[in-house]
Amino acid sequence: MKLLTAAAILSSAAAFAPTQSASRSTQLMSTIEAGVPERVAPDAGFMPDWEDRPGLAPEEFMQSDMGKPDLSGMWECPLTRWDSEGINVAEAQRMAKKVPHCPMEVRASSADNAKGAQYFADNASQIKQDLLKYGAIWFRGFDLMKSVNGYRDMYEALGIDPCLDPLHSSGLRKFASERDALYEEVNKPSLRGHYIGLHCESTAKRTAAYAAFVCFQKATEGGGRFLVADGAAILAEMDPKVLQKLYDRKIRISVSNLDIPPSIPGPLKEGIKNLVDVAVAPKFDMDLEMIYEADGKPGRLQAVESAESPINRHPVTGLPVWFNNAHNHARKLRDRRPCGVPEVGMTEVFYADTMEPLSLEDCQEIKRASEKHITALSMEPGDVLLVDNYRALHGRDVFQGDRFHAVSWFTWDNEEWRGDERRIVEKNGMNKMINGMMDWLPKDFESNQS
Ligand SMILES: [Fe+2]
């Protein structure tokens, strides 16, 4: 395979960035098992009311403060801090049971609003303590964060440093305002009907320390609740037998499928595998292994992450937490709820020891325990959800109409955990062009964002 054409590389790249039109034609094919299960909207334990607070017009909320420095050269997303050896599951559940309800809610008074960014500067230390205690804080009704520049004032007042999204290197993450280190959430109309299950913004390799999700415009025609759930509460809730099994066997997640005609001769199949491995996988900055037919489909090549523990101790508090993306990525759950992802972008979760997909029973227990602890937030303009990304998981419900939510990721405040890598702003023309073309391809990786 020494003659690699750009087209070949990009057609392989397309495996990681499926097309919109494919999403319609392959939706019905998204179940490998016999029979197509019914799709049911997932549950949520808590559902606060909408309040219909007004926002600003897009030309107002998108304004950046050009007097502030350009933050495009932000920190790299830090490496994942795994601490998962020797966990006693029963003891972990006892510890996790003691946590208070997540998220904590902070509602702006008129005095708070009058203070603007000073409110966050004055309360930064308390807010950081509360974030460790509750896992997430929902700031409601703050006028300051109704715009991009006010949102940046908020995180600067808190003294937290933005970093790249863990999947930034794929070129598939879009900025809402690059100079403010602000990414768009999945607002695009083609993914309105796609439910994004619970996940941390994390790969086995990189994990952001914190996130601040902001609403500038809620969905104009309904839906679009932002989901948050405490990983400690999910851990405490889960059937101990399922938890022990998953902890003992570990999990592996496949992030993309490339279906090769099964009749292709073995050596050529190996060549395709090597091509994808060499040309495309490194763009994702994940430890991916290319594996044929792990889910049983003839000719299917899957890009599979390394084995990881489904439970991790929080890097600061040591609290054991359900820390994995199975609720979002398990195929048996996706096949049973609104899912707009074409076959090429369908994910799966495997038991790491045998590479068998998770059983339906285990998926259903993950779903039950997770959804019981979901708070489906009614986020409105100016609302921010500050999240400890090692503790609370997030997602978003389907929506109708237009929506504009955005998110910044944050790194650690100590050098050792943060590392010293900063973003290298891409100046290489060829890479820029390939990223540009990949960006043009509609993207499924977005579906793992929210
Ligand atoms: Fe996300």
TrEMBL record:
Sorted alphabetically, the keyword list is: Oxidoreductase, Signal
The terms under GO molecular function for this entry are: oxidoreductase activity
Q: Where is the TauD/TfdA-like domain?
A: 113-403
As given in the record, the signal peptide range reads 1-15
Q: Per the record's keyword annotation, is Signal included, yes or no?
A: yes
Q: Does the keyword Signal apply?
A: yes
PANTHER family, from UniProt?
GAMMA-BUTYROBETAINE HYDROXYLASE-RELATED (PTHR10696), TAUD_TFDA-LIKE DOMAIN-CONTAINING PROTEIN (PTHR10696:SF21)
Q: Tell me the protein's name.
A: TauD/TfdA-like domain-containing protein
Q: Which organism's genome codes for this protein?
A: Chaetoceros tenuissimus
